Amino acid sequence: MNNKIKGNLKIRQELKNIVLNKNTLHSYLFLGEDGIGKKEIAFEFAKNILCLTKNEECNCKSCICFETNNHPDFQIINEEGENIKINTIREMIQTVYEKPILSEKKVYIINDSDKMTKEAQNSLLKTLEEPPEYIVIILIASNTDLILNTIKSRCTKIVFEKLSNEEIFQITKEKNISTEISTDMYELFDGSAGKALRILEKKDTYNQLEEFINSIENIDKLVFFTESKKIFDKEYINEMLEYINVLLFNYGQKNRNIHYLNCMNIVQQTINRLKSNCNFDMSIDNMLFKLWEEVNEDNSGD
Questions:
Q1: Which of 119, 203, 211, 266 would be a feasible disulfide site paired with 86, CB 3.0-4.6 Å?
Q2: Cβ distance 201 to 233 under 8 Å?
């Protein structure tokens, strides 16, 4: 097994045994949160399926071709995680019925398959219903609700677990990213290494958010508003607001302060407004004023 891949060791061993016992099925659906290694494990599974020797340490022609991204019997669809339209699936299907060149099987990975349009999914359905004997199709998805039931019913589902904090710590360490991570931030990662790496690229901003929460009770309303507004980045706003709610919950619980817990509703209302395409600046302005007032003015009589 690839030692660089973290987590889900049991599933990886089961997939390895499937190949060794020659029990590989025609279609699989890998389900789980974004950023927990589903794609990396799918690649590992595909390499093992295509391997000519099935040995642990193998240097066969198939494995060499796979490692150099030059395997004629392997194809990944939508590697960058974009929307998948019907033409993309039709192009894939045109090659499905061409027999393998190097290995006994042909493997297709459809990354972020929950981004397939309904037309694309319906186009894939016939191939899943009547696949050639040499075909293995691996669908990777994080939102099973976006996949048609007819697709799900024809795939063997494998549900992946979130990564532990220790596994995320090891991944960030190997990538030479600062491992001085607060417990609050680990909560925001939610078991996803991908999310962790994305957030840690902007760690300074998230540290500012911690200061932002800690300053509410000790700063003038106007100063709080003008200084805090500078922190918010429209591109990362959802994760930033999620982190504020993590901080508010933990601070409110630790200090037994109901006002900080009430602030979570204000943040959630802002999240909902932004999802409804309300004006970004107005939504953030409204949130900042309400947060300060909840913590300072509404508890003046306590």
A1: 119
A2: no
